[in-house]
Amino acid sequence: QVQLVESGGGLVKPGGSLRLSCAASGFIFSGYYMTWIRQAPGKDLEWVSYISSSGDIIYYADSVKGRFTISRDNAENSLFLQINSLRAEDTAVYFCARALGYYDSSGFYQQHYFDSWGQGTLVTVSS
Amino acid sequence: SYVLTQPPSVSVAPGKTARITCGGDNIGNKSVHWYQQKAGQAPVLVIYYDLDRPSGIPERFSGSNSGNTATLTISRVEAGDEADYYCQVWDSSSDPVLFGGGTKLTVL
To answer: What does the pLDDT look like over A31-58, one tens digit per residue?
Structure first.
């Protein structure tokens, strides 16, 4: 069965950095778009970033653009999120999720939804 | 940017029907997906493309979408359905993936 396991979260000071990882198993990782979604304590879900199956198409939420970098290693079935210049408002549980959707007439993969999620890793930004 | 509006809470007695709405401008023209998140757990997809159910999701869960409102309907509600429910759409704007603010379903 599909399994996604995040790691790399922790307590970090404002301005610091972390690298989150997501280990995938139970499916052909290289065939799927993947995404990161976060949830601040007691708050709703917020999409962060997605990456295409081959890694050549990447999008970020405006709130993290320029500070976060998504990447993947299909040989290792792993997804990553490098988070820099951390702020208090980045405190959240970070989930990785598998994205499904379809290709439109121009070849753009759109209408993403998320059929499998990891359990999340907590990032706490505090001095 | 596009905004999804959900009621903060819905309460229902066991065995009754719960309806959770997700409002948005002409949301009927978009595909809506729904997630269930129980306390301390990751979200689970319960409805995709307005009305399709993933395997393993009970038939009690159904969805509809028209006009300015999408609705998740849970029939014969059970205590185990108590959770937060989020709607989600894809939008051709700066942030393509949007979630609603979530609705807490309480089973009385």
So the answer is: 999 999 999 999 999 999 999 999 999 9
How many angstroms separate the CA atoms of A109 and A103, rounded?
4
CB distance B107 to B36 below 8 Å: no
A60: amino acid identity, one letter: Y
Residue numbers in A near B90 (CB within 8 A)? 101, 110-113
Helix (H, G, I), strand (E, B) or coil at A90: helix
**Cross-chain residue pair B43–A117, CB shorter than 8 Å:** yes
Contacts of A51 (CB under 8 A, 6+ apart): A33, A34, A35, A57, A58, A70, A71, A72, A79
**CA A7, CA A118: separation in Å to the nearest integer?**
10
A22 to chain B, closest Cα gap in Å:
14
Q: What is the mean pLDDT of each run of 10 residues along chain B (108 residues)?
A: 95 98 96 97 98 97 98 98 97 88 97
Q: Which one-letter DSSP state was computed for residue A19?
A: E
User: Do residues A109 and A35 make contact, with C-beta atoms less than 8 angstroms apart?
Assistant: no
H or E stretch covering B37: strand B32-37
